[in-house]
Design a protein that fits this description.
Blueprint: H1 6-11, H2 25-28, E1 36-40, H3 46-54, E2 59-64, H4 67-76, E3 81-84, E4 97-100, H5 107-117, E5 123-127, E6 138-140, E7 148-152
Parallel strand pairs: 1-2, 1-4, 2-3, 4-5
Antiparallel strand pairs: 5-7, 6-7
């Protein structure tokens, strides 16, 4: 409980991002040089490492509620800025990509936060779980691998509109 408090379990259990889960994402989601990427709920840093492999030139950051996990993630990923905090309370402003590997029921909240705080054209990327009511802008599906869903934040006129997903 000290390493991973009950409050953290409400957002997502500790499931590390597989090493190659995001392979190919950089081909679908463009990143400007020195762009900022946030792993929201970075755990032990597996997602940070996968994001670094996608965009080695980017500024990789992580936020983690559990201070012991934050310390381990920072130790494992010395090239990343990892801070202890609440991913829901911390600002996502200024990020070009926010990566989440949360619970399915967290995704609507993550999309609302992305729409409220990210600039138009920024991305919310999710491993395994779709944003309900939203069509993904990109979808990475490789044989035998988990699905990666990528949602580009719309312009101000379409901010946070909900569109029914086709065929669902």
């Amino acid at each position: 409980l000290l390493a991973y408090p009950v409050r953290a379990w409400r957002d997502a259990p500790l499931f590390p991002t597989p090493a190659d889960a995001l392979r190919g994402l950089a081909d679908l989601v463009p990143m400007p040089a020195k762009g900022r990427v946030l792993d929201a709920g970075c755990g032990l840093g597996h997602g940070l490492a996968a994001l670094h492999r996608c965009w080695p030139q980017a500024r990789i950051e992580g936020i983690e509620w559990s201070w012991p996990l934050r310390v381990l993630a920072a130790w494992r990923c010395p090239w990343a800025r990892v801070r202890q905090g609440d991913m829901w309370a911390a600002s996502w402003a200024g990020c070009q990509v926010v990566y989440c590997f949360q619970r399915p029921e967290s995704m609507a909240r993550a999309w609302q936060k992305a729409c409220a705080e990210l600039a138009p054209g920024a991305w919310l990327v999710s491993l395994d779980f779709e944003v309900p009511g939203q069509l993904p802008s990109q979808c990475l599906q490789r044989p035998g691998a988990q699905t990666v869903w990528a949602y580009q934040v719309p312009g101000l006129a379409d901010r946070c509109s909900t569109r029914p997903a086709a065929g669902r």
